[in-house]
Amino acid sequence: MESREDEEVIGLFGFEEPLADWSPRKFMFALVCVTDRVHVMKIAANTVAAFEYTLTNAKGDVLDSSNGMPPLEYLHGANNIIPGLERELEGLVAGDEKKVVVEPAAGYGERDERLIAAVPRDRFETDDMIEVGMKFHAQTPEGVRVMTVIAVADDTVTLDGNHPMAGETLYFQVRVAAVREATQEELNHGHPHREGGCCGGHGHGECDGHHHGDGECDGKGSCGHHH
Ligand SMILES: [Zn+2]
Fold first, then answer.
1. CA–centroid distance, residue 227 to ligand 1 (Å)
2. Which fold is adopted by the domain 42-111+163-192?
3. By the 8 A CB rule, do 212 and 205 touch?
4. CATH number listed for the domain at residues 113-160
5. Which terminus of the chain faces fewer neighbouring Cβ atoms within 10 Å, N or C?
6. CA–centroid distance, residue 212 to ligand 1 (Å)
7. How many angstroms does the Cα of residue 175 sit away from the middle of ligand 1?
8. 52 falls in which pLDDT band (50, 70, 90)?
9. C-alpha of residue 184 to centroid of ligand 1, in Å
10. H or E element, residue 187
11. pLDDT tier, 16 (very low <50, low <70, confident <90, very high otherwise)
12. Helix, strand, coil shares, percent, the chain, to 5
């Protein structure tokens, strides 16, 4: 019981009697305090972790990066990020760096050729030129899906409903910036709240179509009636 942390706790809480005179209860209390102080929070369920990342494909092209943005925060265990990455972040602590390789099945899925469809041009409710690379939202039995135009002919437009990163093996270089306990509100919402507000993050889609009522996500970091 000679460690520096003990001395700090004794000082901090004003325990002045010799250690031998402490009641078992006080001793336990001090022990809990010491444990708290030296405890380094690991990424686990119900923690909010923030990490910096660079994502490259097999060829080494950078597909995405947190460079120039605040570290990406997510609620661990809430499907905020792809499962293959979430799994590998578990147990890390602030300052840890790791290379994570995510196979398509644990990332954005395999490419599915059935999600490619030629659609008559007159089905599009737009007078604008339809060009390769444009994206449309299509209502499907599984919900709204983003469809990318991959070919345009005289009377048909070919759409691809695969995620742009489907079929890619993803190479992440991550560095954990911070780990903290999630608040009850964050657990209820299933995502972190940056700077105390709902949906105030940087547009990673966390405001899309779930249990937030209309008008809650105003893009200014506040969340309607919650705050
Ligand atoms: Zn929220």
1. 10
2. Chitinase A; domain 3 (3.10.50)
3. no
4. 2.40.10.330
5. N
6. 7
7. 25
8. very high
9. 11
10. helix 184-189
11. low
12. 25, 30, 50
